[in-house]
Amino acid sequence: MHSECGTPLISTVHFILCRLWSRITVFPAVSDSMHSKCGTPLISTVHFKRQLSSSPTFPRETTQLRALKLKPNPSLSLSTLGNTVSALQPGLTGFYPHALKVSAKLGLLKEGKQLHSRMIKLGFNNVLPLQTQMLNLYVKCKQFSDAEKLFDQMRVRNLVTWNTMICKSNLCLGFSYFKKMLINKVGFDHITLNTLLHASSEVKGVVFGRELHCFIVKCGFLYDSFVSSALVHLYGECGLVEEARWVFDQVFCRDLVLWNVMVSCYALNSLTKEAFEVFDLMKKEGVKGDGYTFCSLLKSCCIWGFYELGRQVHGLIIKLCFDLDVPVASALVDMYITNGNLYDAQKAFDGMTARNVVSWNTLIVGYAQRGDMEKVMELLREMRCLFVPWSFKRKCYSF
């Protein structure tokens, strides 16, 4: 009913439910969920405030908090969360984990600090799950000093707490926390190792990566597909393709992510033939590719001399119905532009059912490189009419 109802029908159903089932405990939560998912968050907010003042219950408050993530107006979400915090009564401990999750997801630092203050006042500040959620909020809002202060004050820390600190720290700080984990005998898991490997790949830290590789082999995590994928990605980012292939060959049970990372590794280093060899091996083993696979293959065809191979990939994409995928279609436009075929690039762009700013930027760059500024201005005007936001970031040219 959520996906099909319009606002008048929702209000009618709500009225009937109020008359027939007003005494049923679960009804307020169902009503809040219905209004929020059907695009009437204001009605849901009013109904929630009215019900909260009479008899607050855990399902209703969590439903309303989940609904904040669906609302298009951030200010309404922020206001609703602030009013909810002020209306809370002591004892509603189930509210805090969900409220902190919403605050972290929406970046509501001010409301998160209000929640933290109230937790301290009510004596919930030493509850480990709440501390971990609060730590996650500070880290996501880039309040690293507050996060470190809270981390140092924690009497008990678990693996999730340590991983949260490692995840958002820089490479050196992340490794220092990892060493402290080993000294304190906290233990580690694949998430810990994956986080450190990705941090190393971002700064092309080969030395740190090789040290981690030795540690991973020693601890027996090399055959974990999650960790091995991150290791292949690290070596690919650093241009060490042979090391990446060695790690790939060591894993016997390969999932789609590992195959995609290996194809991407070759594409990133302009090794088109090797990328397609891995793709052929992937098909022989019965693994079906996804949008990420074809994006990597198209990227590997953005080299002079592989235009016909790119057209074959385009045919396979149409056959498998991946041409409706926005990243794949954007990569297709980029492939044609790189090979100097603006006609097919425009044709692929016109066939896209949905476009993002990357798609527009790719086509604009193609016409700008050819010197067709009239077409560039036409595309910019079309972007403005369709309310597509212009990008001023590096490597983006819609200005």
Q: Rg, please?
A: 26 Å
The number of strands is: 0
What share of residues is helical? over 70%
**What is the residue-mean pLDDT, rounded to a whole number?**
79
* SSE succession: HHHHHHHHHHHHHHHHHHHHHHH
Q: Which residues form runs of ≥5 with pLDDT under 50? A: 19-37, 39-61, 393-399
Q: Which term fits the overall shape?
A: globular
Q: Count up the helices.
A: 23
Q: Would you tell me the structural class of the helices and strands?
A: mainly alpha
| CA-CA gap between termini | 43 Å
- Biggest sheet details: none
Strand portion: under 5%
Characterization of this structure:
The protein has a domain at 157-253. Helices cover 71% and strands 0% of the residues. It has 23 helices and no strands. Helix 12 (190-202) runs antiparallel to helix 13, helix 17 packs antiparallel against helix 18 and helix 18 packs parallel to helix 20 (326-338).
Task: Summarize this structure as a short list of keywords or feature phrases.
single chain; 399 residues; mainly alpha; 23 helices; 71% helix; disordered C terminus
Give the helix/strand layout.
Elements: H1 7-20, H2 27-37, H3 41-54, H4 58-68, H5 74-87, H6 95-106, H7 109-122, H8 128-140, H9 144-153, H10 159-168, H11 171-183, H12 190-202, H13 206-219, H14 225-237, H15 241-250, H16 256-268, H17 272-284, H18 291-300, H19 307-319, H20 326-338, H21 342-350, H22 357-370, H23 373-385
Helix pairs in contact: 2-3, 2-4, 3-4, 3-5, 4-6, 6-7, 6-8, 8-9, 8-10, 10-11, 11-12, 12-13, 12-14, 13-14, 14-15, 14-16, 15-16, 16-17, 16-18, 17-18, 18-20, 19-20, 20-21, 20-22, 21-22, 22-23
